[in-house]
Amino acid sequence: MNYVWANTQPAGASWPNAYTKRAIMVAQKSGLPDNNEIWVDEIRNVREDFKKYFGRDVTKIDGVAIMTDCDNGGGVSTGYYRDIRFTSSE
Known about the structure:
3-stranded mixed β-sheet; globular; alpha+beta; 1 helix
């Protein structure tokens, strides 16, 4: 699962990952932030998303990657992250 803040895709859109068939891109947000001085909280049910996009259940997460990039656009980007956590839905 690759959750992204997209510039050109609307929130909720999904599309194949350009580099691997083992991942899918999902636009969590779209466009520029309303205020870049306010933290934005994001919540996803990764297990349900995995079922939706891959058609099977997942019970264990082997790794998490968090990154900021310009999607090969040659631009400059900055991202800040904090308080990342996974919780059980049970």
